[in-house]
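// run 5 | inverse folding | seed 20
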């Protein structure tokens, strides 16, 4: 793959991670949960072949309890 092709592929992976983050944020908001530190992990977006990760971050106890309750109410 050419350098340009690698850059395009990397950009597509990062874009997919951003879309996943946004989808998760929206789904969580739909059940009343907000993860204040939800973001893309920047170090995972570097290098020749980035493998972007969605960082769920940290949250307070109340948010953790709300998230657990929301997950228990979901069907797989």
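// decoded
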């Amino acid at each position: 793959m050419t350098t340009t092709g690698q850059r395009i592929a990397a950009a597509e992976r990062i874009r997919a991670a951003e879309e996943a983050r946004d989808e998760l944020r929206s789904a969580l908001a739909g059940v009343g949960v907000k993860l204040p530190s939800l973001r893309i992990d920047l170090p995972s977006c570097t290098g020749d072949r980035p493998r972007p990760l969605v960082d769920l971050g940290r949250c307070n106890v109340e948010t953790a309890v709300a998230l657990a309750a929301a997950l228990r109410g979901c069907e797989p």
